[in-house]
Amino acid sequence: MSIWIMKPIDHAGVLVDGVLTFETDDSVTNTNTALHYLSSSGTETSLPNAGVTESNLSTADWSLYSGSNHNFGYLFGKVSGVTSANTTPTITNVNSSKLISETFHSNHSNSSNGLDFNADVTGEYQYNASNLTIHAQGEVISFSYLAYSSSTFEPTTFTRTQNNDNGNVYYNGILVGSQSSGSGNEEYPTDYWSLTDFQSNRNAFKDEVISKISTNQNDIIEFLVKNALTPEALKRLHVQLSNDGIIT
């Protein structure tokens, strides 16, 4: 089986959103895979349903192109090796690699979201198209095929649904549908918050914090910006404030 990685890139060439991983039969060619997976029609039913859906899109990440179309891009690669695994790569050790569990993860503190996809951040993230490698948090992921592709699509057109109907698809290294998406607690079991003491005290904590917003606003805002916002969310906030003329 062949293992593939897809990482969305916004109109400015910046890494955004989560990362998709999936397997295909070895007979699938690079051209066919790219054509079907980057297509807005999603008509190829023999391949896993991996792709970015309309619910993943935001105007901060995807620019309007030619009036009514959105411009988007991907890093797209066929994995050939993971240095930490020291063996033929499997979907399991690819998903547990630093690239998927941290660097390309949408919510991890070590996420490289917000960086140019060509960035070279020593020890953290380095994309090397010539050597077909990506360095991530001290690991090296090698590829037999690695490319940046971009295209356009109509905002109202169906884009690929993320599901496992034609083969398992993983988002941020987690099987699609196995955990509630968008919770912000992807590193914990789905029922984590209901099984801890935090659940019973949550309302009291919330009321106490809210009561202090007017007198401790700066401290609370500073904490939220540093600890609650992902790199991608912080980038979006900066873009919005710049567009509004608040940041010049």
Plain-language structure description:
- With 248 residues, the chain is of the alpha+beta class.
- The chain has 2 domains: 2-175, no CATH class; 196-243, no CATH class.
- Helix content is 24%, strand content 24%.
- It has helices at residues 30-37, 91-95, 98-103, 197-211, 217-228, 231-243; strands at 2-9, 20-24, 64-65, 69-82, 120-121, 125-128, 133-136, 139-153, 169-171, 174-175.
- Strands 1, 2, 3, 4, 5, 6, 7, 8, 9 and 10 form a 10-stranded antiparallel β-sheet that branches.
- Strand 9 and strand 10 form a beta hairpin.
- The radius of gyration is 19 Å and the shape is globular.
- 30% of the residues are buried.
Which descriptor suits the 3D outline? globular
What's the main sheet like? 10 strands, antiparallel
The fraction of residues in strands falls at 15-25%
> What are the segments in which pLDDT stays under 50 over at least 5 consecutive residues?
180-200
Q: Helical content, roughly? A: 10-25%
Count the domains.
Answer: 2
By DSSP (H or I, 4+ residues per run), the number of helices equals 6
Gyration radius (Cα, Å) is: 19 Å
- Tally of strands: 10
Mean pLDDT: 75
Distance between the termini: 50 Å
Q: Element order, helices and strands?
A: EEHEEHHEEEEEEHHH
Please write out the topology.
Layout: E1 2-9, E2 20-24, H1 30-37, E3 64-65, E4 69-82, H2 91-95, H3 98-103, E5 120-121, E6 125-128, E7 133-136, E8 139-153, E9 169-171, E10 174-175, H4 197-211, H5 217-228, H6 231-243
Key words describing this protein structure:
ten-stranded antiparallel beta sheet
